[in-house]
Amino acid sequence: MPPLVSVVIANWNGRCYMEKCLASLNAQTYPSLEIIVVDNGSADGSRDWLVEHYPAVQVIANKENRGFAVANNQGISRSRGVYVALLNNDAWAEPDWLSCLVAAVEQDPNIGMAASLMLLADQPERVDSAGACVDRFGISWDRLSGEPAAASAASPAPVFGASAGAALYRRQLLDQTAGFDEDFFNYLEDVDLAWRALWLGWRAVYEPAARVYHVHSGTSGAGSAFKTYWLARNKIGLILKNYPRPQLWYYWPLILLYDGLSLGAALLAPQRWSALRGRLDGWRLLGRTLAKRRALQAMARVPAAEVFRRLAPPATPWQVRHRFQHRAGPGSRAWH
Predict the structure, then answer these.
(1) Do 259 and 152 sit in the same domain of this protein?
(2) pLDDT tens digits, 188-241
(3) Using CB atoms within 10 A as the burial measure, which of 39, 75, 101, 157 is most buried?
(4) Boundary-marking domain end, from 189, 214, 239
(5) Which residue, 165, 195, 214, sits at the end of a domain?
(6) In a domain? residue 273
(7) Reduced to 3 states, what is the DSSP secondary structure of residue 40?
(8) Exposed e or buried b for every residue in 166-175, given b needs 16+ CB within 10 A?
(9) What is the CATH number of the domain that holds 108?
């Protein structure tokens, strides 16, 4: 029997998406899986619907929205699989999705995570994500996002990390990293996990045969105040906790410059104050973030120079803007 894969889905008022998501998991060709849904205090009848229509699915019910990071950690703690797959509630997978991800990870014991080819549900010929990237200015984005899927995303490749919207992780990696940083609540927690895993010597791969269709920001809403706030807040912690030193000192002025440009663009959008408030709250956590950085460096197995080499080269401001310009919604001006 192949190793058990535990599929964890964090849900918050996603009843309208769940049927398609769960039906796609029931159609998987991979023969050994369990499904765990963590409901974050939904008010749309999600839990009752799950109990009625999917009694075999394990449900963890939170009384309130505890965030994506906490919910997935809860599901991971409950799971029994050698591998843990995460899938967004607003996504659905092709039947061989899990089989392809498991095959990709089992190529090498040093591969700790595999990224899927996530396609835009309303434009399935275009890529939503083909792995996570971070550049030397600390800006993170979805690899190949907005590009045509037919040519640009067709080949497997090493990547910085995986989007947790549709990814597979080794249990050993999750145990070593203690899963997602729950201070992140929502957004960039998957990039943070990938960066910490890199410091510990794990590798990540992208598997284009593992295809998923995603309603981008279907739950939180593109350009919402909620999303704008958490992206701004978590970017501060992401850089201060993970960026290798001494390179951080060299790039710090440019990191601040580019973040200032991002904030300036965000202040032109309807949710302008969320971008500013998120950054201020990120800086208020400086002491806690630096303590996490010290703990990570005490565990690190990879030299700083090697981690730095995994960051993408610097980009011009208009190149950075191009990474996000296809995103719908008023918040698309902001950079991550």
Answers:
(1) no
(2) 999 999 999 999 999 999 999 999 999 976 555 556 889 899 999 999 999 999
(3) 101
(4) 214
(5) 214
(6) yes
(7) strand
(8) bbbbbbebbe
(9) 3.90.550.10
Q: Are the C-beta atoms of residues 212 and 117 closer than 8 Å to each other?
A: yes
Report, as an integer, the average pLDDT of 247-253.
95
Task: Residue 241: name the closest of 152, 185, 201, 181 by CA.
Answer: 181
Are the beta carbons of 10 and 180 closer than 8 angstroms?
no
Q: Are residues 114 and 45 in the same domain?
A: yes
- Residues 89 and 208 placed together within one structural domain of the fold: yes
Query: Does residue 328 share a domain with residue 237?
Result: yes
d(CA 214, CA 17): 10
Count of structural domains within the chain: 2
* Model confidence, pTM: 0.92
| Of residues 13, 19, 16, the one with CA closest to residue 39 | 13
The verdict on 137 and 269 lying in the same domain is: no
Q: Are 47 and 120 members of one domain?
A: yes
- CA count, 13 A, side-chain hemisphere, 163: 28
Q: Residue 103: enclosing H or E segment and its boundaries?
A: helix 97-105
- Residue ranges of E strands in 130-244: 132-134, 140-142, 157-159, 166-170, 203-214
Beta bridge partners of 212: 93, 118
290: helix, strand or coil: helix
Residue 317 has pLDDT above 90, yes or no: no
194 and 232 co-located in one domain: no
* Same domain? 31 vs 113: yes
CA-based radius of gyration for the chain:
19
Residue 127 near residue 147, CB atoms below 8 Å:
yes
Q: How far apart are CA 47 and CA 146, in angstroms?
A: 34
What is the sign, positive or negative, of the torsion defined by CA atoms of 240, 241, 242, 245? positive
- Distances in Å between the alpha carbon of 330 and those of 141, 142, 224, 258, 265? 17, 19, 8, 20, 11
**Among 208, 84, 198, which Cα is nearest to 151's?**
208
DSSP one-letter code for 113:
E
